[in-house]
Design goal:
By secondary structure, the chain is α+β, with helices and mostly antiparallel strands. It is built from 16 helices and 11 strands. It has 2 domains: 166 residues, Serine Threonine Protein Phosphatase 5, Tetratricopeptide repeat, CATH 1.25.40.10; 196 residues, B-lactam Antibiotic, Isopenicillin N Synthase, Chain (Jelly Rolls), CATH 2.60.120. The protein is elongated and about 95 Å long.
């Protein structure tokens, strides 16, 4: 140690000379200088790395491996040193040494992209398909978008992603055949839910969970579209479709009372709503808004208000109930988004639906049919579109989540009232 400390100035001078020699193409002279440094400090990281790289470029893999091996044994190697050792071992056909070196690199940094790709490549060459898929899957997880990758890495990362996709597809096909006789033994609902779990497992579908933007009630399941049986009032609502449509058309004739659905002020982030902010392309005729009845509009729609009075509307001061005729103009898309709370669900009663309209909640995509209602959880990512050249109109209103007990509903109402009492204003977030 004393020798290394006393040689610090000499090492610095030799490093400077070696750097100048490399810059002027005198590689042999630089190598001799690095060797002199190692005589002073046998564990000098820069010299061991440089000599290993020179040997690697010359095709002298034995010498390259020896230098990189000394480097990692010195305890001064970073992931690059371990990766260089792995590459030298690869060229020498030393699979065990290559695997050990990659394990060393990933012990330093388990998220190193190149080390993960190289590990997948090793396992692929060895026919260790399952282990290769895991390594390539980990690489795909940590990789930045392709456009941000170094050009030298793009082919390897693209191969890793393609390998993982094929592996998942092969696994899915195998499981489809293997599980088919088991699925035939069970009911449609259980089978459908189980199939979706398999689709998520093998990457055919994404996992979507409730992501309440403001108030999340724990232990409520994430269900895209709830079963009709939970809402015995749905048939009566559907039975009023014609009357409600007529009421809406009478309102539409006056062109009064309609406002853009998205109305963010200029000084807040618009995010995905920039295109639709303050736009009539997605507008609403509000009957209830932020927990209050819009009297002028409600007076023009007595039959609609009568129907709404028969459903379990949530009571949250300054927030719910909410109900409106929602208008989506031709060639308009509502971007993916999530609602603010899972204590309420949202009902759609389609009134006017041209061809080319659709709606997605999580993995479930559906098409509105006039007079056929559904109830969904809007805290799960959802989006809508009208690709037609005609207007789409849906009556939208919220209802209590039926999985909340009457006592829980009362407490949620009290919470909203408390928030309003604390702030002296509506509860601080919009429906």
């Amino acid at each position: 140690m004393q020798k290394v400390q006393s040689g610090g100035a000499e090492i610095a001078a030799l490093e400077a000379q070696a750097a100048r020699a490399i810059q002027t193409g005198r590689e042999a002279e630089a190598a001799a200088l690095w060797q002199r440094i190692l005589e002073i400090d046998p564990r000098h990281r820069g010299s061991l790395m440089a000599l290993g790289q020179i040997a690697f470029r010359r095709g002298d893999m034995q010498s390259a491996r020896a230098s990189f091996q000394r480097l990692v044994q010195s305890g001064r190697a970073d992931t690059q040193g371990w990766i260089q050792l792995a590459l030298a071992c690869q060229r020498l056909g030393d699979a065990a040494g290559e695997e050990g070196a990659l394990r060393g690199a990933l012990s330093v940094d388990p998220t190193d992209l190149l080390a993960l790709v190289l590990r997948g490549n090793l396992y692929e060459r060895q026919g260790r398909t399952h282990e290769a898929a895991r390594a390539y899957g980990a690489a795909a997880t940590v990789a930045p978008p392709m456009e941000r990758l170094h050009p030298d890495l793009k082919p390897s990362v693209a191969h890793a992603a393609a390998f993982k996709r094929k592996y998942d597809a092969d696994c899915a096909a195998f499981l489809d055949d293997y599980l088919a006789p088991h699925l035939r033994e069970h009911g449609a609902l259980e089978a459908a839910r189980f199939r979706e779990s398999v689709d998520i497992l093998v990457g055919r579908k994404r996992r979507y969970d409730s992501q309440s933007a403001i108030y999340h009630y724990p232990r409520l399941p994430s269900i895209e579209f709830h079963e009709r049986s939970a809402f015995p009032w749905l048939e009566e609502v559907e039975g009023a479709t014609d009357a409600l449509r007529d009421e809406f058309l009478a309102v539409l004739d006056t062109e009064e009372g309609f406002t853009p659905y998205i109305t963010y002020p200029d000084d807040v982030p618009h995010n995905q709503w920039a295109e639709l902010n303050n736009s009539p392309r997605w507008s609403a005729f509000h009957l209830y808004k932020l927990g209050r009845r819009v009297e002028e509009n409600a007076a023009r729609c007595p039959r609609t208000l009568e129907v709404l009075g028969k459903v379990p509307q949530p009571l949250q001061a300054g927030r719910t109930p909410a109900a409106m005729f929602s208008l989506l103009k031709p060639r308009t898309r509502i971007p993916p988004h999530m609602g603010v709370t899972n204590v309420r669900l949202v009902t759609h009663l389609p009134l006017i639906v041209p061809e080319g309209c659709g709606f997605r909640v999580g993995n479930d995509t559906r098409h509105w049919v006039p007079g056929k209602a559904w109830v969904f959880d809007d805290t799960i990512e959802h989006e809508a579109w009208n690709d037609s050249d005609k207007l789409r109109v849906v009556l939208i209103f919220d209802v209590w989540n039926p999985l909340l007990s009457p006592e829980e509903r009362s407490l949620v109402s009290a919470l909203a009232a408390g928030l309003q009492a604390f702030s002296g204003a509506p509860s601080g977030y919009q429906a």
